[in-house]
Amino acid sequence: MTTRPPILGALLALFLAACSSTGAASTTSPPPSAASADLTIFAAASLKNLLAEAETAYEAANSGADLTISTDSSAALETQIEEGAPADVFLSADTANPQKLVDGGFASGEAIPFAGNKLTVIVPTDNPAGIESPADLAKDGVRIIAAGDEVPITKYATQLVENLAQHPDAPAGFAPAYAANVASKEDNVSAIVSKIELGEGDAGIVYVTDAAASNEVTPIEVPDAANVPATYAGVVVGASPNQDAASAFLDWLTGPDGQAVLFSFGFLPPP
């Protein structure tokens, strides 16, 4: 019978234990990343083009992540979330609608600003009404396409009109004349752009990024002193079953990679 020296037996035992440990590790998958989840993103209509690009970038950076994007008026989406629509993240064109979810107990954590924007006037490329400056929005017969009262662009546009009315070049009665020229009120800012592209209106007030995304409208510059900064904010929906993944997406959007995508579409840093 062959016997091993005690020290050799001990070394052999250690070697076999190490092999066993290595083999067990090789059959165990690493835990999934918090960002690797299916997420439904409810977002303002003015973010539609941006989020198509952001979706590609985010999914490429986070293996296993799958984003589903749904866009509409921020106010409409906020109401849908309160009524139980399944969403993980809400990205709004203002701070008021995310804050409503926070105040009502429909959100996890605070509303997080992630982008800024400014306003411009758009007209069809052939500009049949001959609009050359924002002051012309008060001319007789101009058909202005606006949005519903609860849509964030309307709040910003109303402030812009008030600011323009104070401009030295503004005609008397500018604000009421503008209001009288409103021909329709659409569900969201994308619908304003579409109607102007189709020539169904002479002018509309939209975000700078919406004007830049269309080849079928011409922007009419708004004086800096009168322009209105828009702040976009996001929040994790309280009923989301993917709290960590939703938070990870917001972190990405407010981080350097997400901000680079926003900047490429003309958005500004959050104030």
Question: Helix and strand layout, with pairings?
Answer:
Blueprint: H1 6-26, E1 38-44, H2 48-61, E2 66-72, H3 74-82, E3 89-92, H4 96-103, E4 107-117, E5 119-124, E6 144-147, H5 152-165, H6 174-181, E7 182-186, H7 189-197, E8 203-207, H8 208-213, E9 217-220, E10 230-237, H9 243-254, H10 256-264
Parallel strand pairs: 1-2, 1-3, 6-7, 6-8
Antiparallel strand pairs: 3-10, 4-10, 5-8, 5-9
CATH topology of the largest domain: D-Maltodextrin-Binding Protein, domain 2
Give the oligomer, counting copies of the same chain as homo and different chains as hetero.
single chain
SSE order in H/E notation?
HEHEHEHEEEHHEHEHEEHH
- The number of domains is 2
What CATH architecture label of the largest domain applies? 3-Layer(aba) Sandwich
Strand content: 15-25%
Largest sheet: spatial strand order: 2-1-3-10-4
Secondary-structure-derived class: alpha/beta
Compute the CA-based radius of gyration: 27 Å
* Superfamily (CATH H level) name of the largest domain: Periplasmic binding protein-like II
Number of strands: 10
Termini Cα gap: 83 Å
Instruction: Note the main sheet.
Output: 5 strands, mixed
Percent of residues in helices:
40-55%
**For the residues shown, what is the average pLDDT?**
90
Give the helix tally. Answer: 10
In CATH, what is the class of the largest domain? Alpha Beta
Low-confidence blocks of residues = 1-32
Q: Based on Cα principal axes, name the global outline.
A: elongated
